[in-house]
Amino acid sequence: MLQLSGIKKNFGNIQVLHGVDLDVRAGEVHALLGENGAGKSTLMKILCGILKPDAGEIRIDGRPCHFASYRQAIEQGVGVVFQEFSLVPYLNAVDNMFLAREQRNGLGLLKRTAMRERAAAILGQLGVEIALEVPVRQLSVAQQQFVEIAKALALNARLLVLDEPTATLTPAEVEHLFKVMRSLREQGVAIIFISHHLEEIFEICDRITVLRDGDRIGCCEVAEVDYARLVEMMVGRRLENCFPPKPALPGDADPVIEVEELQLARGGPVSRFELRAGEILGFAGLVGSGRTETVLAMLGAHPAACCKLRMNGVPMRFANPAEALQAGIGLLPESRKEQGLITGFSILHNVSLNNYGKYLLGRLFVDRAREDEDTRLAMQRVRVKAQGPHTRVDTLSGGNQQKVVIARWINHAMKVLIFDEPTRGIDVGAKADIYQLMRQFAAQGHSIIMISSELPEVVGMSDRVCVFRAGGIVATVEGAAVTSEDIMTHATTGRTRHAA
Ligand SMILES: Nc1ncnc2c1ncn2[C@@H]1O[C@H](COP(=O)(O)OP(=O)(O)OP(=O)(O)O)[C@@H](O)[C@H]1O
Ligand SMILES: [Mg+2]
């Protein structure tokens, strides 16, 4: 149904696609796989008319197509769910779904009821309940993701592109999405699916095309390959165990932060925990179990009913995150685009952000050479793939943007780092790099709190794990008890049990 052949694309003097082929059949789910920056999103933007290819051809049903805009692609039945959200935050779900394609009656008036019903029907088909009246910015990230998907479905697309749709979804929501994808597949819709979760690829896809550095490495049936082979195709080398070994921690390591009492809302559960020097403390739990809020409350960025903590034995209360930063606590937020980066700035300015004092020469001058050098070093350490420190962050691939946030804290000499979903949207090779960096940081005697919804990551990385449920910590596990089963049991049944 779809044939892309010899697609080439340059940005300035960098070629990011070197003549890529891709063919997709009606009624199949086709995975597009590759490391961060391999060119997946760029290829999809070319497919839907947002970017112009420098060479190559697009055919749909054998006929050559030249899309001058996304609108023309939509008319040919191509729908896309973009990696970075494209919703208008101030409009509600219905208005977003029908933006620029509003249904009107003979008088040119909006058919509000009809659009609302159609929107409700599509969201119903997705099996999600979403308030249709409120601006989408008031919805959770997962709900916004579903509105995004519903928007593409409203196009009645014959070819649907999903660029990392599962990155922000819970396992149950992913299952929902897969159900919808299966039913679309039965109706003969062709789906291109991008994800860094290989187990999802094995579950839902029929064929896989792998890109590496803008080249097509191969295309195969899912049944023909295994995990190790796929990874090898993606990164060009075999990956050993991606989690670094956990060193034995002395039982008497000093507590750096002791949270004596933290209550998010009056009457809610009370959390207690301590973070020790040199450890990685995992925060596990279902989405919405209060992990992020608890961390934000600690840093003074979320109103809590009660927050009593000590840092290095001294009682503390942070009025705002700037004070926490002063005390040496850095946060990598879960939504890099809104909270972690200024995307219109260069990598350099994002890395030295809130660390300018370090580069002042006297009161008037900035040591640009040193700033430049530090940024280059930090970029190398986390392997940001970009032309140089002056590249704008919004031209980087999603995964590379995340690495820039990490580069900032690496450069900022923090004592405590809080990682909220550290590897969301990060490819397997880069994940291993990030885990390594986290371990090195801890080995220097620093501490990490890692919030993660990926159980293998929690189990593979944490020395101890606090399990959250309904707004507070219900259990703390360590040693041999750090297993997926144990954590899930606590997260879902909430039996209170504190390990010694
Ligand atoms: N507008 C742009 N200007 C300059 N370079 C760009 C632009 N858009 C993308 N690039 C570069 O093209 C390359 C491919 O990026 P792309 O977003 O397609 O990667 P990706 O495979 O989708 O990665 P990810 O898995 O991280 O989303 C990257 O090196 C990126 O920096
Ligand atoms: Mg991408």
UniProtKB/TrEMBL annotation:
Principal location listed in the UniProt entry: membrane
PROSITE patterns assigned to the protein according to its UniProt record, in alphabetical order: ABC_TRANSPORTER_1 (PS00211), ABC_TRANSPORTER_2 (PS50893)
GO cellular component, as recorded: plasma membrane
Places the protein is found: Cell membrane
One GO MF term attached to the UniProt entry: ATP hydrolysis activity
Membrane topology of this protein: Peripheral membrane protein
Classification via CDD domains: ABC_Carb_Monos_I, ABC_Carb_Monos_II
Identification of the protein by name: Galactose/methyl galactoside import ATP-binding protein MglA
Domain ABC transporter as annotated: residue spans: 2-238, 251-495
Keyword vocabulary terms for this entry: ATP-binding, Cell inner membrane, Cell membrane, Membrane, Nucleotide-binding, Repeat, Sugar transport, Translocase, Transport
Upper taxonomic lineage: Bacteria, Pseudomonadati, Pseudomonadota, Betaproteobacteria, Burkholderiales
Organism of provenance: Herbaspirillum frisingense
Gene name of the encoded protein: mglA_1
